[in-house]
TrEMBL record:
InterPro entries per record: NrtA/CpmA_ABC-bd_dom
Name of protein: CmpA/NrtA family ABC transporter substrate-binding protein
Main localization category: membrane
Keyword Cell membrane: yes
Localization of this protein: Endomembrane system
Keywords, comma-separated and alphabetical: Cell inner membrane, Cell membrane, Membrane, Transport
Pfam families with a match to the protein in the record: NMT1_2 (PF13379)
Keyword Cell membrane: yes
Chain intervals with Polar residues compositional bias: 1-11
Amino acid sequence: MDMMTTTSNSGGDMPSPVRVNNEGPKVLRAGFIPLVDASVLIAATEFGFARKEGLTLDLVKDVSWANVRDRLAFRQFDIAHMLSPMPVASMLGLGSNPSPTITPFSLGRGGNAITLSTRFFDRMRNDAGLPETASALDNARALAKILAAMKARGEPLPTFGVTYPFSSHNYEFRYWLAAGGIDPDKDVRLVVVPPPMTSDALAAGAIDGFCVGAPWNMVASERGVGRIVAAKQDIWPSAPEKVIGMRPDWAESHPETVSRLIVALDAAARWCDRPENHDALAAALADPRYIAAPVEIIRRVLAGEFSLDAKGNRRIITDYFMFHSGFANYPRPSHALWIYSQMIRWGQAEVSLNMARAAASAYRPDLYRTALGDGNAPDDADIRIEGGDEGDRFMDGHVFDPARLPDYVAGFAVKSALPFMSDDEA
């Protein structure tokens, strides 16, 4: 039996586990998609944090989020790198293969961006008078003008790629479009494109833009085929991103293993946050076993140094990735409820108190606190008002109060009442 307690020191370093472990090494098979936001999972494997907790992580690179979902459900994976809405969707019974999934640990914040083809961006700049220094909202409004002109001339709707219907990318892309006055269900066509294929699809003209995680936005911009027009921080800085997903029955059957895993991931997240470790992290991520992208691009992504296009336009986003700081790993149920609100907004789910409770149950701060102690958790409520603090605003000024969720959804000028796609397409 594994006996463990954790204590926190005043220096802010990782919790110090005190354990008597008679289980021996435990092998966990973990699925992941090649993205920089898998850093914590990869660092835990490559730099000894899992081994220190008596765990071996067998990382399996997959090609799509639907595959990851199914392989976790069918017990081919013990844990998985997942989109933050995936456990919520699973607990709501949404999708083609819903299987109960929870998360006790978020893998950080940041990493997403929206990229349009250079052709589309040049049209926005020339026809809508868009300056090079335009904000994310300015870019959305300029796109709205171009789309209106295209409709008037009878041109086909542009096609934009998202990585999965129940994804932060889908909801953030839709949020950005709607903030500019664009109806994602009527004014554009959204399709599913796996993350590593987004840059190639843009280059081939199969899509006109996409929302995806790093490094694929910068890969497209440096190839000269795309222009980055918005980052995740522009839409909502605290928006949840990737999480560690697991089956609730597995978590209940392996409580000591879950706690050891959380301690290992917490230590890895702290390590990933330190700039002095980014060269080593970038080298590990660039390996063909993981992301298989140029190490220089990954290093700049970790630093938040954006090449917006191939013309030399650049932007630095402070804390573009937050792997640990600001309680970025805490699985906050109000984040799950915000995700649920977007599912309602875009016709994926209905308003229901029981569904709200099911959505919140996907995020398990109790397991996080059991592993790391209350001293390493935030001292505010697990369900709180989101987007109301300075520096953490939504781009359109809305504030999310979970206690008034139906009113929040009703308050948007652009919303849908119809399902838009099946996750069988992912």
